[in-house]
Write a structure and sequence with these properties.
Layout lengths: L1 H59 L8 H21 L11 H9 L4 H8 L7 H6 L35 H8 L2 E3 L10 E4 L9 E8 L2 E10 L2 E19 L1 E6 L6 E2 L3 E17 L4
Helix pairs in contact: 3-4
Length: 285
């Protein structure tokens, strides 16, 4: 009787030890799995960041910083061709994520594809900005199809309708469509020296935009009647500006400014004030 009891106690003790060993082994296995998972995730994130940086460098980096003028022209031709092929492949739609989206229209308009940039802006079917607007959006969604055409949601659990705006087009509309920009040189940054250079297109008849700066509001309004463009520019006090007339072939009303021909535009430098300029623009296809 005593012998059986002793064996039973030994067996119980062994089972407890084995249970502890199994528990420790399972814990160590979980730790190893977690470490492997973390390492894998870190590698995946690094690869994704590298891909996104490569896209940024290919589509948006400024080649004039490290290429000769001849090489810049070749790079622009290559970049323009690549961007057009990407749009054609996707039937003129965006397939970029939050990181690449805000730069795509800039990359197009900077490389002679202003029409394609406007076409992209004015798309109304999915995926596009105006698809969201037509579905009732007043802010940028997390997903291009946060609300589907049939009214169902992309996902009720993860579906922000007021998301952070890396996917927005607003910057391009202010800087290119309205033409309100700043000279990024040290003495002109922060809208101390403005660059007013609206690029007309998209079949729009007018654009009217105001941007509040530390010096006061900057306003640009342009109206198009065929090739005749009327431009109103309001420059705040204590600032200066370079006013550029995109694809201008003749200035009809200069409002006292002296415009000189540049490559692709005419330009005049001025101080603060309100200016109304009328010019004829070279028409494009």
């Amino acid at each position: 009787m005593r012998l059986n009891e002793t064996k039973r106690k030994q067996r119980t003790s062994q089972e407890e030890v084995l249970a502890e060993l199994f528990a420790e082994a399972e814990l160590q296995g979980s730790v190893r799995k977690k470490k492997n998972w973390d390492a894998w995730m870190e590698q995946e994130e690094a690869q994704q960041i590298e891909k996104e940086m490569q896209v940024y460098l290919e589509e948006y980096s400024d080649p004039t910083l490290y290429l000769t003028p001849k090489e810049v022209k070749a790079w622009n031709r290559m970049s323009k061709s690549k961007q057009k092929r990407l749009l054609e492949k996707e039937n003129g739609h965006l397939v970029t994520g939050f990181i690449g989206t805000p730069y795509f229209c800039h990359a197009l308009s900077q490389n002679g594809c202003l029409k394609e940039a406007y076409d992209l802006l004015l798309k109304e079917d999915y995926p596009s900005w105006l698809y969201q607007v037509k579905m009732g959006a007043t802010t940028i969604w997390e997903h291009w199809d946060g609300i589907k055409p049939d009214g169902t949601m992309w996902s009720p659990g993860m579906n922000s309708f007021n998301h952070y705006a890396y996917g927005a087009i607003g910057e391009w509309m202010y800087r290119v469509m309205a033409g309100i920009d700043t000279d990024e040189a040290e003495e002109g940054a922060g809208f101390r020296h403005l660059v007013i250079w609206p690029r007309m297109g998209g079949g729009l008849s007018y654009t009217d935009a105001v941007h509040e700066t530390v010096y006061g509001p900057v306003r640009v309004r342009w109206e198009a009647e065929g090739s005749r463009i009327s431009l109103l520019a309001e420059i705040p006090a204590n600032t200066s500006a370079s006013i550029r007339l995109d694809r201008a072939v003749r200035v009809e009303e200069a409002d006292g400014l002296e415009f000189r021909a540049m490559e692709g535009f005419m330009e005049a430098n001025t101080g603060s004030g309100m200016y109304r300029i009328v010019f004829k623009q070279q028409m494009t296809d």
